[in-house]
Amino acid sequence: MAAEVMLMNEIEATAAQMGIDMNIDFSSIQLPPGENCGIISDDDDVYHDDQLEFDSGFGNVIVVDNLPVVPREKFEKLEGVIRKIYSQIGVIKEDGLWMPVDPETKKTLGYCFIEYNTPQEAELAKEKTHGYKLDRAHIFAVNMFDDFDKYMKVPDEWAPPEIKPYTPGENLQKWLADEKARDQFVIRAGTDTEVLWNDARQSKTEPVYKRTYWTESFVQWSPMGTYLATVHRQGAAVWGGANTFNRLMRYAHPQVKLIDFSPGEKFLVTYSSHEPSNPRDANVRVVINVFDVRTGKMMRDFKGSADEFAVGGAGGVAGNSWPVFRWGGGKEDKYFAKLGKNMISVYETETFSLIDKKSLKVENVVDFSWSPTDPIIALFVPELGGGNQPARVSLVQMPGKEELRQKNLFSISDCKMYWQSNGDYLAVKADRYTKTKKSTYTGFELFRIKERDIPIEVLELDNKNDKIIAFAWEPKGHRFAVIHGDNPRPDVSFYSMRSTHNLGRVAKLTTLKGKQANALFWSPGGRFIVLAGLKGFNGQLEFFNVDELETMATAEHFMATDVEWDPTGRYVATSVTSVHEMENGFNIWSFNGKLLYRILKDHFFQFLWRPRPPSFLTPEKEEEIARNLKKYSKKYEAEDQDVSMLLSEQDREKRRMLKEEWEKWVSEWRRAQEEEKLERQKLRDGEASDEEEEYEAKEVEVEEVLDVSEEVLSFEE
Amino acid sequence: MRPILMKGHERPLTFLKYNRDGDLLFSCAKDHTPTVWFADNGERLGTYRGHNGAVWTCDVSRDSMRLITGSADQTVKLWNVQKGTQLYTFNFGSPARSVEFAIGDKLAVITTDPFMELTSAIHVKRIAGDSTEQTEESVLVIKGPQGRINRAVWGPLNRTIISAGEDAVIRIWDSETGKLLKESDKESGHKKTITSLTKAADGSHFLSGSLDKSAKLWDTRTLTLIKTYSTERPVNAVAMSPLLDHVVLGGGQDASAVTTTDHRAGKFEAKFYDKILQEEIGGVKGHFGPINALAFNPDGKRYGANKNSLLIYNLLMELDVVVCCVSNEPCRWKVEIYVLSCMFAATEFLFCSGLLIILTICVLQLNSFSSGGEDGYVRLHHFDPDYFNIKI
Question: How far apart are CA A584 and CA A558, in angstroms?
């Protein structure tokens, strides 16, 4: 500090000598607006962002009509009144209020323009003050400035709409008809987003489409793989097509942050939250829009403060769990629901309004989930009144809102619900307090949804005190896997909902002791599972066959952060995303744990397999195929063989070419070396020994007949 | 075989150099004393004291009599290899980054870093046969490339100088006039700082390693890009096997960025690539920090001779399975035959229908390579016989 003070003193002394006034009030220096003296501010990006938004239109300007017409003397008074009204709603920009005056009469014209900081404020102002009564004769008519253009363009006379000739759309499902039955995936690395084929036969990828800056935050496939959604500042967009990716539709939603498709991909839900521009206003505003994916039409919007959309009443953006609206009723996209305070609001998509015009009232409900296939809601209400009123889980049928089943649970601390993918079973993981209330232990309540009266079974682990690290149902199956116990080496157990003797009882299949795993990934076809040790376990992978109860392979993808099965259950992708600095990229494995290929990409963000729509085959047909798999697979095996022959042929050819090319270089070098030999000797004062000339590597092949013996072999017919 | 861990340096290694016979290994480190070791057992032979800064580089004359070292103390020193005495000191205004003797050892090329107001430069000095007649003056000074020049080496017949450095461009200069003759293509060339450059034994091609996570093989005369070896970490050091078509890349995460708890995350392995097919064939682990220096024992070259194969073959006729080994002590050849013992040899037999075909006979021993790391250790790796049987 002392040195600094000294320095300042010196400077002042020098300044005094030179007659410069050092007492400058820096805050009094104002640069002309827009002038930065060529110095780019650190905040420039921020400004730039804002600017972009404003430049896009006059979205933050409103026009207030039906104002009193006042002479010049009263102008300021009127302006004061208007300013008072409108500054309550938001921050009016400096010089953001403009009331035009007739140049001849000097009277106002009965309208004014107000410019807010943000379009959100402008919209709010329009909503709140449209129809505001200043007095009996003056009822405000408020419009967005942008809307004027729209209104002006409406022609005076009605013209019959032009009927456009029908143009058949592209086959958006064409990728499913790939000759080699390959699957696609999308990756995001750096600024590039790329869709690729997984050509596992050739152990490589084949590009489909690549675009730089395709999305501004992330990409997402629709649940049946038809569309790829991208997210931009102005809204979301979906892409698809027969052979490439074209933009099919845009959904305007400024500053959209999150998106969610309905399971049947009919609707798209978009979400944005906006910090209040007025610091006194603590509420973050949330906008949620529901679009029809195909037409792009906005079906319904929800606006409100973040609290209203916070799940479980936790409040704030952090407590907001996405998706806010959860879709139910299977692939028909009939219903969607939102958790509210003491209620669950269930909407149906025909009218986009609440079923029976009212929400489902459930006191203190904290969680709910839809059956993946049926319009059934499972909801959880925690314990109340210090245990006087037990916690309960109930199943409610929609749209009738009948309670199908209810189960009271005692001394519950927490509860989680897991649906089996066919909606056959529901597992409720219940954490209970021990008698002393000092610790908890975990049990499962297993609901058999499809059976009469929905029987419930209670399952406790062999060691009740084991912590549950992960739980997963076998897709379309009747088994589930649990990781339980303590780190670093927890156990993995497999259970079946059908024991061998009794179809109605849950039975343990096996327990694998001391596995380095903290996540479970079932194959979409069931039967196989990957036990993964992500994060703390450095990416340990175990490929396990649950039918045979044996480990097929163990492997490691060092630092792996994500594991995803392809939709057919043939391949597994493990990736290291940019949460780690090093090792970014992905590995593709076969279902039985053989590493097929490995691709490294810096700044790797996302790996997503393109989902496939459900099969049209009936279960009987599928079973028939499974039974006669040998017959069907023959053709593919032959193809596989051909490809591998071709590949090794190509490989050989390539290597031969490379070797030849190299030989050419080597002989060229040898020639040059020979030519320069004398000169080199001269440089070395005549010393000749160039070891490369003294010894020459020769490959010697010696072949000699050691022994020739003749034997008479008898042929048997 | 277990690598020999050579502890002697107190700071990160910067450079390794074998003499022509392959019996001595010279190492430079950020501590101030270059060290010489016996190349076969890793025993320390001596040190060269006198520098007052990190030593970045060295080279040894063909007759192993003289050593030249370049240091951050802004000097380049000539040493008597045997006695460890200083013969001469060249003074520069900035740290010396790379040195190399020309063919015939009468010239040396030295690069100096940009420092204060000085720009980087390539100096050519005449090296006098008698060090008492040594003078300070430069024969040629080349300036031009932006940033540090990490390596400058002689081209064929000392006619050209090849330089590479921070600006990621490889340049070929006329060593007489200092004129720029060729520049590597921006498109196909390196994208980031070139950290290392090493020539093939006959100087016909050279390998460059860069922070852009790749190494590239170039033709020395035409500067044609021949091969590219991509890896997953920045490359600090490169080496070419004199014997097999293998290249070795060393490097790893930047030392200052090493924060992960697991040493695997840093990628401190030396990676072996097939020189022709550009495919990775293996790795040698061991270092706890990035690898800064790599060198192959040039001696291995001599064992490539297959002139003994006939002799061996005759012996094979008499013995059922014979594994042979030709061992070498400097200056002397000795053929040893081990019956039914696999020690260092690698032979491959194929018996088929009464015919004995000897596919390849590689007779090797003591071929080795060494690596020096940020961790301050030199690791001397003798190859196991299996190494010579790598098939891909």
Answer: 10
- Which candidate from B202, B267, B304 shows the least CB-CB separation from A669? B202
Radius of gyration from C-alpha coordinates of chain B: 22
What single-letter amino acid sits at A54? F
Distance CA B2, CA A68 (A): 96
CA separation for the pair B188, B184 (Å, rounded): 8
Element counts in chain B: helices (H) and strands (E): 2, 32
Task: Considering only the beta carbons, identify the residue of B104, B356, B359 that sits closest to A704.
Answer: B356
CA pair distance B237, B15, nearest whole angstrom: 9
Closest CA to A647 of A599, A593, A596: A596
Name, in order, each residue with C-beta under 8 angstroms of A604's C-beta and a sequence gap of 6 or more. A187, A188, A189, A575, A576, A577, A578, A584, A585, A586
Most confident of A44-48, A166-170, A495-499: A495-499
Edge-to-edge order in the sheet of strand B180-183? B149-154, B160-165, B171-174, B180-183
Residue A404 near residue A397, CB atoms below 8 Å: yes
Strand B291-296: give its sheet, edge to edge. Answer: B4-7, B377-382, B368-373, B291-296
Residue B351 has pLDDT above 70, yes or no: no
Q: Which residues 352-391 on chain B approach chain A with CB closer than 8 angstroms?
A: 354-361
All structural domains of chain B with their residue ranges: 3-301+369-384
Q: What is the mean pLDDT of residues A164-182?
A: 84
Instruction: Kindly compute the dihedral angle of the four CA atoms of residues A326, A331, A334, A340, in this order, to the nearest 10 degrees.
Output: -10
Contact call for residues B52 and B78 (beta carbons, < 8 A): no
Q: What is the DSSP string of A67-104?
A: PPP--GGGHHHHHHHHHHHHHTTSPEEEEEEE--B-TT
What is the number of other CB atoms lying within 10 angstroms of the CB of residue A108? Answer: 21
What pLDDT does A9 receive?
Answer: 62
CATH numbers and ranges of domains, chain A: 61-153 (3.30.70.330)
pLDDT at residue A163 in the model: 81
Q: B157 vs A582: CB contact, 8 Å cut-off?
A: no
Q: Are the beta carbons of B357 and A658 separated by less than 8 Å?
A: no
Chain centroid to Cα B232, Å, comes to 21
Q: pLDDT value at position A705?
A: 64
CB–CB of B163/B111 below 8 Å? yes
SS3 of residue A474 by DSSP: coil
Report the 3 state secondary structure along A8-42.
Answer: HHHHHHHHHHHCCCCCCCHHHCCCCCCCCCCCCCC
Q: Which of B156, B232, B262 sits opposite A600 (nearest CB)?
A: B232
Strands A440-448 and A402-409 come out as: unpaired
What is the topology classification, in CATH, of domain B3-301+369-384?
A: Methylamine Dehydrogenase; Chain H (2.130.10)
Interface size A-B, in CB pairs within 8 Å, comes to: 97
Of B40, B43, B39, nearest to B7 (Cα)? B43
Residue A588 CB coordination number (10 Å): 24
Which of A31-35, A162-166, A451-455 reaches the highest mean pLDDT?
A451-455
* A543-561: average pLDDT: 90
Could you tell me if A479 and A471 are in contact, meaning their C-beta atoms sit under 8 angstroms apart?
A: no
Residue A676 CA from chain centroid, whole number: 64
Angle at CA of residue A88, ends A85 and A92, nearest 5°: 90
pLDDT at position A278, please?
A: 67
Collapsed DSSP state (helix, strand, coil) of residue A387? helix
CA distances from A340 to A69, A306, A367 (A): 47, 12, 10
Residue A48 near residue A125, CB atoms below 8 Å: no
Q: What average pLDDT does the structure give for chain A?
A: 82
